[in-house]
Specification:
Layout lengths: L2 H11 L7 E6 L6 H12 L3 H14 L1 E7 L1 H13 L3 E4 L1
Antiparallel strand pairs: 1-2, 1-3
Helix pairs in contact: 2-3, 2-4
């Protein structure tokens, strides 16, 4: 194996890094736990357990990352959260 082939092989092995964004859900004094959980299941494809854990984190910590991914894939999910009356943003 010559040097050029070795360098090419190393370059091909490096993972492609994508810029991932996050949807952050914030606590409020308006929405019930049940509403938040149902909305996370519907909007972010969470399981019931994931949604419940996120709701608890939001309640006690003030915010929680509920979904990560590419920006254009997060926009419709974040819009659903906002339409449901939750406080969320993409960061």
């Amino acid at each position: 194996m010559n040097t050029q082939e070795k360098v090419l092989e190393e370059v091909l092995e490096k993972p492609v890094e994508k810029n991932n964004n996050e949807i952050v859900l914030y606590n409020d004094d308006v929405n019930t736990f049940d509403h938040v959980i149902e909305t996370l299941i519907y909007s972010c494809d969470h399981t019931a357990l994931q949604a419940e854990q996120c709701a608890m984190l939001v309640h006690y910590k003030g915010k929680c990352t509920v979904k990560t991914g590419v920006y254009k894939e997060l926009v419709p999910r974040c819009s659903k959260l906002l339409e449901a009356g939750l406080s969320a943003e993409i960061v």
